[in-house]
Specification:
Largest sheet: 8 strands, mixed
Shape: elongated
Distance between the termini: 68 Å
CATH superfamily of the largest domain: TolB, C-terminal domain
CATH class of the largest domain: Mainly Beta
Order of helices and strands: HEEEEEEEEEEEEEEEEEEEEEEEEEHEEE
Helix content: under 10%
CATH architecture of the largest domain: 6 Propeller
Length: 361
């Protein structure tokens, strides 16, 4: 039976292959590589280093080309009318920072038809990240039932958000005792998995993992639900630079959001000298730099928020060794207050004040 089924499927596929052109709309001429009116001169995607200029060339293969444009990340870098032979431009590797973005050769024919040749340009960092280490300066108790997702100081008070369906909450926490202020605590609906928090202008912004909602709360004598903003994809970590909300989603991408409507203002991709750094989680903005937990690792990255370049990697393995409980949950949670930096993890027994120092070989 399986043999006849396979034969039937093969005949069906062959018939579809033969008949498909009869039902397909007439293709645009010159829309294959062999008949293309213009093409980039390189076959593969490009890789370059931040700060390096490279020459990008394309060949004009038809006398009927009226105009070519080179577009990078939706920005037109080059335009030429009635091009002949070859066109070339110098590509600035510092433009739009590090990361992978689209490069398009947009061709307009004299009869109005269009053609696009697509490539990807990957720009890696020109810096080898500095090696740093988190040294423990002080230890404080941490609630081992708190599956930490966000950690934030605001007006001298420590706030923590936790995850897990049915047990997610936001609360003010006493630093020295680790106790939760029950009068300043709010639980999430059991269908929501809480993620990172940040506080800006007396408003708490809290991400949810897969619900695609940023929940907002007014922060006063208590925490009062205010509203919510939708977003696409997963929510992981969030912080702010005093103007914009800054959000991670578990990839190498970090989005800067308008706090009034949660629309994306700009996006950076986080790269070191080898390539993208994935699994970015909890975030904190400290002295003009982004600090990011790398999920399931003992590393915290220090990131330039304008270029996406990783300037330093902080080894937090000593914190993991001392802080992890029996469930071996991961490092997650970065906060700062009055020049001091604090870190903890999910269900950890301790929260640490740390200094971040150069790693001595």
């Amino acid at each position: 039976m399986k043999k006849y089924l396979i034969i039937g499927l093969l005949l069906l596929a062959a018939g579809a292959y033969i008949l498909a052109p009869m039902f397909r709309s007439k293709p645009i001429e010159n829309n294959t590589v062999n008949e293309a009116p213009a093409l980039f001169d390189f076959q593969e995607n490009l890789i370059t280093t931040y700060g390096t200029n490279i020459t990008i060339e394309a060949s004009i293969l038809s006398d009927e080309v009226a105009k070519v444009e080179v577009v990078y990340d939706d920005t037109v870098l080059y335009v030429k009318n009635d091009p002949k032979g070859k066109v070339s431009l110098s590509f600035d590797g510092t433009y739009r920072g590090v990361g992978s973005r689209g490069l398009d050769l947009m061709v307009t024919m004299k009869d109005g038809r269009t053609f696009v040749d697509n490539r990807i340009v990957r720009v890696v960092s020109n810096l080898q990240p500095e090696k740093m280490v988190a040294n423990i300066k002080a230890k404080y108790p941490h609630n081992t039932t708190s599956f930490t997702q966000g950690l934030e100081f605001y007006n001298g008070k420590l706030y923590e958000s936790t995850g897990q369906y049915g047990s997610s909450f936001i609360a003010e926490v006493d630093l020295t005792s680790g106790k939760i202020n029950e009068n300043k605590k709010i639980a999430l609906d059991a269908t929501h998995f809480g993620e990172g928090i940040t506080i800006l202008n007396d408003v708490i912004y809290q991400l949810t993992w897969q619900n695609q909602k940023c929940l907002t709360y007014d922060l006063g004598e208590s925490i009062i639900p205010k509203g919510e903003f939708p977003y696409k994809g997963e929510g992981w970590g969030i912080t702010n630079d005093g103007t914009y909300l800054i959000m991670s989603n578990g990839t190498e991408r970090i989005q800067f959001k308008d706090p009034n409507n949660f629309l994306t203002v700009r996006t950076i991709e986080v790269y070191d000298d080898k390539g993208p750094r994935l699994a970015l989680n909890e975030l904190e903005y400290i002295d003009g730099k982004l600090y990011a937990n790398v999920w399931q690792s003992a590393e915290v990255l220090v990131i330039d928020p304008y270029t996406g370049i990783v300037t330093a990697v902080v080894d937090c393995s000593e914190l993991v060794k001392e802080g992890q409980g029996i469930d071996r949950e991961v490092l997650n949670g970065i906060a700062h207050n009055q020049g001091k930096v604090y870190m903890t993890g999910k269900n950890w027994k301790q929260l640490f004040e740390v200094t971040i120092d150069p790693l001595v070989p």
